[in-house]
């Protein structure tokens, strides 16, 4: 559930598109290396993991750990305002708390709309690739409507009856597709790449994190700023979702599960898809040999799969995966927004869940329609516009979590020893 809700659509969309973008120079190259060179290939993988690795999951972990601590250890409602009790006291139940929850809802709904829009664009491109169906706005909006309808059914069934079943199915299909790409793609290069990508990621993590005196300011502002805003806009949703499924875990178990395991899985996934794509581009195979741009980014995964055996089957599987991740993100997001707007209740009325599922789909459709041919830019702008204001909330949340954990530790240290 953690993966399906947190990054499923993104991994499908950007698993090929992002490494290829950095390698071919679409939107600049990380650290200013020359495009289409071996150095660009190595840094493309490192920069991709940089955006999807520890930094991203650390943002989720702050929100999730804060919510879980104040809800399960302190007995407060599972809502964003509860985290600010050490700072605001009883005022967190007044207008200040309302403002915090409203910011969280807005950030979540636009962050989700960005992902749903990306998923719709990729699903439409896959349908065009496989069946010749138009991949234009009409098809993308039709995908949004269809998947939102399925998400409504899932959200009515709840966490165990809907989200959990879909998430487990998603991960099984994703694992099958991953193994297929590893076995049928450049297997040796992929395994070597997993190690080299890890090394390149760790050796470049500081230089990629510095915000001043950089030669790649275009790339940093176009990619890194967007990703941080996207993760921040997703943090109330994914953080609360992780908190809901983490009751009974120790803080150590929580940090390992939320930080280290997803980063390792991301390295495996991105290395498998990204290296397969870059190998094809370097050898002049298929459509990726000419690079990608705004109009072809949603097609990149299918262009890579086209040059592997059984491409029609794997393309169909890819479309199915995107749509199922689409459903999982929508229904889990609806449950989270529903919980926030219901004051932390986990059993809010079903019509309220349906309302939020419809709202998410409507906003995604509006961004796609309003963006036209530049829909990808419109989706990114929506995430940035709502994600950056929530950064202030996250900073204060770090302080409140520190205060809460410190007080907990002091209360434990002054307890008398048992005889």
From TrEMBL:
Q: Name one GO cellular component term.
A: plasma membrane
TM ranges: 52-72, 93-121, 141-159, 171-191, 225-243, 255-278, 308-327, 354-372, 378-402
Q: Does the keyword Transport apply?
A: yes
Q: Which Pfam families match?
A: BCCT (PF02028)
What's its membrane topology? Multi-pass membrane protein
Q: Name the domain of life.
A: Bacteria
Keywords, comma-separated and alphabetical: Cell membrane, Membrane, Transmembrane, Transmembrane helix, Transport
Know the name of this protein?
Answer: Choline/carnitine/betaine transport family protein
Keyword Acyltransferase in annotation? no
Where is the protein situated, by its record's location annotation?
Answer: Cell membrane
GO molecular function terms listed in the Swiss-Prot or TrEMBL record: transmembrane transporter activity
Name the family: Belongs to the BCCT transporter (TC 2.A.15) family.
């Amino acid at each position: 559930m953690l993966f399906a809700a947190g990054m499923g659509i993104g991994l499908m969309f950007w698993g090929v598109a992002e490494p290829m973008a950095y390698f071919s120079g679409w939107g600049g190259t990380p650290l200013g290396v020359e495009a289409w060179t071996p150095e660009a290939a190595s840094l493309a993988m490192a920069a991709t993991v940089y955006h999807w690795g520890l930094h991203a999951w650390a943002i989720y972990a702050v929100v999730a750990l804060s919510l879980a601590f104040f809800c399960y250890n302190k007995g407060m409602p599972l809502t964003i305002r509860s985290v600010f009790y050490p700072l605001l006291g009883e005022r967190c139940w007044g207008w200040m708390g309302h403002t915090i929850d409203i910011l969280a809802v807005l950030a979540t709904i636009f962050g989700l709309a960005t992902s749903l829009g990306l998923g719709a664009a990729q699903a439409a491109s896959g349908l065009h690739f496989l069946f010749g169906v138009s991949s234009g706005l009409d098809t993308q909006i039709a995908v949004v409507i269809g998947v939102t309808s399925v998400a409504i059914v899932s959200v009515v069934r709840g966490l165990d009856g809907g989200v959990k079943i879909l998430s487990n199915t998603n991960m099984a299909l994703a694992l099958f597709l991953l193994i297929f790409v590893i076995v049928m793609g450049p297997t040796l290069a992929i395994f070597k790449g997993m190690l080299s990508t890890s090394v390149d990621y760790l050796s470049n993590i500081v230089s990629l994190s510095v915000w001043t005196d950089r030669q790649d300011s275009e790339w940093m502002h176009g990619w890194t700023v967007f990703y941080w805003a996207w993760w921040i806009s997703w943090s109330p949703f994914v953080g609360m979702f992780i908190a809901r499924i983490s009751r009974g875990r120790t803080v150590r178990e929580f940090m390992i599960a939320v930080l280290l395991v997803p980063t390792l899985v991301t390295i495996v996934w991105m290395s498998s898809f990204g290296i397969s794509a870059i190998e094809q581009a370097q050898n002049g195979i298929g459509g990726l040999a000419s690079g990608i741009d705004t109009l072809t980014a949603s097609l990149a995964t299918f262009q890579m799969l086209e040059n592997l055996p059984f491409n029609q089957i794997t393309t169909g599987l890819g479309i199915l995966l995107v749509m199922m991740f689409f459903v999982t993100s929508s229904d889990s997001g609806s449950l989270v927004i529903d919980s926030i707007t219901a004051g932390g209740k986990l059993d809010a009325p079903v019509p309220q869940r349906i309302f939020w599922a419809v709202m998410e789909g409507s906003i995604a459709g509006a961004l796609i329609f309003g963006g036209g041919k530049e829909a990808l830019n419109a989706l990114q702008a929506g995430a940035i516009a709502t994600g950056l204001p929530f950064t202030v909330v996250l900073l204060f949340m770090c302080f409140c979590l520190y205060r809460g954990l410190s007080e907990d530790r002091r209360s434990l240290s002054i307890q008398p020893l048992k005889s």
